[in-house]
């Protein structure tokens, strides 16, 4: 499990762990193409077509506090339950072959929440990253025994605002998982799509000022290269963007990157989002006619 077995699963508030070292990655396993194909075929549920799965799914995980309130619980309990929903989505993405998953964990605007909630979330993120990395580097992956093992973890957003221990944990996690390629998992923490666009503009302006670039050289591709989601241009734009809890907006998530994303909204609150919901979103995605503005006939 990605995130379980932690004492904090009981809902207790914990001081941030001092554990910042991660195990070294496992050696890569080799499987025959036939074994790989068999494993992959075995895990794809009926109704889903392997050849048209989204390469990149982005998700706005919303509704944790409402989920908790409905049960007479504090919002922290909703966030803990939300963590388990993310764990399940990561597991399913990995099993079904969705290669990139980006989860909106905490927005720039969320900093204005009560301090006790923000502090809880920061500690939660640190635990999630630590526990996840330990899991991502484990050798045994019974369902998908392929030569491309493991999950690569990244954090995007204004990390300078995060507690120093979380910054350090995130950096070490990125370093420890950088060679993994089974699933690219990005957590957007202190993220703002507008800020991402502004920081990309600033970088381009600096390059123009230092004469590395001329203004007329700037095109969409160069611009996208400066976004936080574009390390070395290897990050596909989201094909499918899911938002839970009945809210019908993007809320400043991946604004540039979602220009042609298919949107899927569900009333399900994030902690309840499970296999059936994810499958529904993917089946809906596969029913869409993606024309990208082009007339096909
Ligand atoms: C999403 O759930 C988690 C974060 C934004 C950190 P919320 O905390 O926004 O829950 P609701 O939307 O108020 O129910
Ligand atoms: Mg919300």
UniProtKB/TrEMBL annotation:
<dbReference type="InterPro" id="IPR036424">
    <property type="entry name" value="UPP_synth-like_sf"/>
</dbReference>
<dbReference type="InterPro" id="IPR018520">
    <property type="entry name" value="UPP_synth-like_CS"/>
</dbReference>
<dbReference type="InterPro" id="IPR001441">
    <property type="entry name" value="UPP_synth-like"/>
</dbReference>
<dbReference type="GO" id="GO:0016094">
    <property type="term" value="P:polyprenol biosynthetic process"/>
</dbReference>
<protein>
    <recommendedName>
        <fullName>Alkyl transferase</fullName>
        <ecNumber>2.5.1.-</ecNumber>
    </recommendedName>
</protein>
<dbReference type="Pfam" id="PF01255">
    <property type="entry name" value="Prenyltransf"/>
</dbReference>
<dbReference type="GO" id="GO:0045547">
    <property type="term" value="F:ditrans,polycis-polyprenyl diphosphate synthase [(2E,6E)-farnesyl diphosphate specific] activity"/>
</dbReference>
<feature type="region of interest" description="Disordered">
    <location>
        <begin position="1"/>
        <end position="22"/>
    </location>
</feature>
<dbReference type="GO" id="GO:0005737">
    <property type="term" value="C:cytoplasm"/>
</dbReference>
<keyword id="KW-0808">Transferase</keyword>
<comment type="similarity">
    <text>Belongs to the UPP synthase family.</text>
</comment>
